[in-house]
Design brief:
heterodimer, A: 2 domains, 7 helices, B: MetI-like fold, 12 helices, 0% strand, globular, binds adenosine-5'-triphosphate, binds magnesium ion
Chain lengths: 243, 270
């Protein structure tokens, strides 16, 4: 399996150290879930990988190329909030991010509709974001991330604001999307059950400053109840260690 | 800014502002009584004011003076709007410009209308330019402050989204910065236009021979007090019409995404 993403000794210090030498690799087509206590630096890490933030030390390579702000990184990002433009229909929101790809107007709209249909939003293309449910907005944000056909899909607690029912539905949806598209996915979550249910590989971070505490393959060889229990005790330790 | 959906669900009594009408009726009666007590020079009767309105409608004075005033307002207000938009554009490109705009706005805001009237008389003499310039200087800080506030309040999280998806500068401007600034712009234009109307009329007292301000002052000089009241009503009318018809329409259009379900585009590529 080819390495697609290389995070190498990445450190980030704001006023306090947030990331402290985070290293891991992600192979093509992997579904990696990132776990760690509140405020340990998971969002910061995703922001560095997406090129929104520069690491203080270390580097990130995507497809062999170093990620830098303003560089031509090809990632799709689903933020914790949907970050749709409220004044544009769902379709236009998706079509907008296809502009930089050099598609014609008609192709853009067609692609946008195709991806909205893919996440189950057919019939809602022309709705404004405020007029659909939170789950639907999150789907539209996922459609937008998929539409740019990124090499890497970053998702930062995308289901945090959903109720249990919608959350389960969306988990299935993302799993299906992953299976159908073969995309590499980096998925931050607070729910260990969720991580074990959808990830092929689980990375547990330490409390701030974050390092990789442990990486667990989740390929069905281990009993998932055991894995959940182990991760639970790990996160308990980390939370208690927090300053 | 109100986000109530327009028209729907309002009762006819609300639409007609029935309580307001009753108060107006009472005021009219008291007015008539006072007019009889103090005489038409001090307080002309409501009937003579109504007759005055009929008079300027027939003679065409209404359109002549209203047109002259509106023309000056549009030039002064329009130039202020152009400059304010340019200032907003600059601040969106270059953050330090914000401080400059803030300071300029603070200084302009603390300058009295009368200063601009006197200065414009010195600079432009007894011409159209004097009221235009006064209007310009008074509306500029209101418009600039609103537009720059709008630009400052653009949601950073949306800008980040644009950055992750590699939108170009013009695309970010068109898709993110302009739409989020528009409500501030419309609010600023609404307040600014009201100010423009009030201020330009004062400036018209000096030097020019047309316009609502001129004719009001002239009516006072020839002791036609009822005409002063007539033109005051005309001003109120202009204010209401522009507010209700123009600015409410614009702001409904701009905020459409808040209360309508679907985006409606005419030319949708299929
Ligand atoms: N721009 C910034 N300036 C200063 N400190 C920051 C900045 N961004 C993040 N931090 C700090 O970095 C730490 C990690 O934040 P981050 O959002 O990455 O955590 P997280 O793991 O995503 O937390 P959560 O699970 O709550 O989402 C926090 O203590 C936060 O205060
Ligand atoms: Mg976070």
């Amino acid at each position: 399996m080819a390495v697609q993403l290389e995070v190498f000794k990445v450190g980030k210090t704001y006023l306090i150290p947030v990331l402290d030498g985070v290293s891991f690799e992600v192979g093509e087509g992997e579904f990696v879930c990132l776990l760690g206590p509140n405020g340990c630096g998971k969002t910061t890490l995703l922001r560095i990988i997406s090129g929104l933030e520069v690491p203080t030390v270390g580097h990130v390579r995507l497809d062999g190329q170093e990620v830098r702000p303003g560089a031509q990184n090809h990632v799709g990002m689903v933020f914790q909030e949907d970050r749709l433009l409220p004044w544009m229909s769902l379709e236009d929101n998706v079509a907008l991010v296809l502009n930089p790809l050099g598609l014609e107007g008609v192709e853009r709209q067609a692609a946008a509709r195709r991806y909205l249909r893919f996440v189950g939003l057919q019939g809602f293309e022309e709705y404004y974001p405020l007029k659909v449910s939170g789950g639907m907005r999150q789907r539209a944000a996922i459609a937008r991330a998929l539409a740019v056909e990124p090499g890497l899909l970053l998702m930062d607690e995308p289901f945090a604001s959903l109720d249990a029912q919608n959350r389960r539905i969306m988990q299935e949806e993302v799993k299906r999307i992953w299976a159908e598209t073969g995309k590499t996915i980096l998925f931050v979550t607070h729910s260990i059950e969720e991580a074990v249910a959808i990830g092929t590989s689980l990375i547990m971070f330490t409390a701030r400053p974050a390092r990789v505490r442990e990486r667990i393959a989740n390929n069905g060889k281990h009993d998932s109840r055991e894995v959940i229990e182990r991760l639970n005790s790990m996160i308990m330790e980390e939370v208690l260690r927090q300053p | 800014m109100t986000n109530v959906s327009p028209g729907r669900g309002r009762r006819w009594s609300d639409l007609l502002h029935l309580p307001t009408l009753l108060v107006l009726l009472a005021v009219g009666l008291v007015w008539e009584a006072l007019s009889r007590r103090y005489g038409a020079y001090i307080l002309p009767s409501p009937v003579s004011v109504l007759a005055g309105i009929g008079g300027i409608l027939r003679s065409g004075d209404l359109w002549r003076h209203t047109g002259a005033s509106l023309y000056r307002i549009l030039i002064g207000f329009g130039s202020a709007l152009t400059l304010a938009l340019f200032m907003g554009f600059l601040t969106s490109l270059w953050r330090p410009a914000r401080t400059v705009v803030h300071d300029v706005v603070t200084i302009l805001n603390s300058t009295s209308v009368f200063v601009w009237i006197v200065v414009s008389l010195i600079w432009f003499g007894l011409t159209d330019l004097a009221p235009m310039f006064t209007t310009f200087m008074i509306t500029l800080p209101v418009l600039a402050a609103n537009i720059v506030e709008g630009v400052e309040n653009v949601d950073r999280r949306l800008l980040e989204m644009g950055q992750v998806y590699r939108l170009s500068g013009p695309e970010r401007f068109r898709a993110i910065i302009i739409p989020s600034t528009l409500p501030y712009l419309v609010a600023g234009m609404k307040v600014g236009f009201g100010l423009a109307l009030k201020v330009s009329v004062v400036a018209e007292i000096f030097g020019v021979t047309s316009g609502i301000g001129y004719i009001m002052n002239y009516s006072r000089e020839i002791l036609a007090t009822q005409m002063v009241f007539v033109w005051a009503l005309v001003m109120i009318g202009i204010m209401l019409v522009t507010d209700k018809l123009i600015f409410e329409g614009i702001s409904r259009r701009v905020m459409r995404w808040q209360y309508s379900l679907k985006s409606s585009r005419w030319a949708r590529p299929t």
